[in-house]
Amino acid sequence: MYRIALRMLFGDRGKYLSLVVGLSFAVLLIAQQGAIFLGLILRSTGPLQNIGQADLWVADPHTRYIGDIRPLSDRDLGRVRSTPGVAWAEPFVTTRAVVELSDGSYKSAQLIGIDRSTLIGQPPEMVAGSLGDLRGPDAVIVEESSRGKLAGAGIGDTFRLNDKRAVIVGIARAKTGFESNALIYTTVDNALGYTPVGREAISFFLVRVKPGADPGAVASGIEERTGLGAFTQGQMQSRSVGFILKETGIGINFGITVALGFIVGLAIVTSVFYQFTLENLRHFAVLKAMGARNMVLVRMVLLQAVIVGFIGFGIGTGAAALFSLSGRRPGAELAVYFPWPLLIVSFVAMLVCISMGSLLSLRRVITLEPAVVFK
């Protein structure tokens, strides 16, 4: 019986290909748009993607987003360092700057300032040059993918950063922020020189907890002593992601796209599979007239649906994975993140499509009268 079901399925190549293509497109759209959405959400966490040395991020208690900053006073740094359980605390600056290129054009840049002595907050990977050279006067390190935005600038080149001289001493590899501006590293002192501000100029204090100390207790101690907010990296990520979802239209827009992909796939699979079943009713009637029970026919229909579903799922997720690989290369502007739970979501969507597509067909087969074969 199962062999007959497969011959019925593959015998009508037009309907078979329509089913596979429709389901593959639905899975592709769900997986691809889901991966882009998750990639944008991950990118919205900004510097959090690149810094793993700190246990706590100390900021204004009303901070909602990693890019929504109210500067802190360096006087609070001493209070943070004196809090019981703190191993070290270092300043960290993130701000905007304008890069003036030699051809007269300009680009917006994300300027990161790290402590000159400890270099806490450094880029994850150096591609060229030495991190220690950042301690030199007017020294900056440019993120690898940002070189194209800065006219291919390399080590030894100079440019104007907020109308002040900057010298490139290294090339680093790091994750860019939500706005995808050029990413430039320098020291805190240089960053404050490039972007003059008032007495309160520090964006965050990066804090490392002593071994054995409870980060939650240390965070509470910092908040009581300074009146600032102390957040773990996970808490800071949650705040940033929540801000993007609530305050922007990204979640709604991608949700509509994913829903449309699901609806289109469901409509195609249901209509084509039902039409496929109608055209094969005479075969089911013959089997029923020969004594085949309803459960046997149901299993035949389900087998056809499952095979089409798995083939469509494989093609759709494979195409989405190939698409995602283009966003994982260094310097790629496309934000893509394809975790394994997204595969499960795509698989469940595929199951729903083929289940809904099978219901009408099953009902038609079960209520089929064997006498149809004699008409």
Structural category is alpha+beta
Biggest sheet strand line-up: 3-4-9-6-8-7
How much of the sequence lies in strands comes to 15-25%
Rounded mean pLDDT score: 82
Largest sheet composition:
6 strands, mixed, barrel
Shape call: elongated
| Distance between the amino and carboxyl termini | 23 Å
Radius of gyration: 29 Å
Unreliable residue runs: none
Number of domains: 2
How would you describe the oligomerization state of the chains in this entry?
A: single chain
For the secondary structure, the number of strands is 12
Helix and strand pattern: HHEEHEEEEEEEHEEHEHHHHH
Number of helices: 10
Share in helix = 40-55%
Structural summary, described in words:
The protein has ten helices and twelve strands. By secondary structure, it is α+β, with helices and mostly antiparallel strands. The protein has two domains: 2-43 and 249-374, no CATH class; 61-227, no CATH class. Helix 2 packs across helix 9 (294-325). The longest helix has 32 residues, at 294-325. The chain starts with a helix and ends in a 9-residue tail after the last helix. The mean pLDDT is 82.
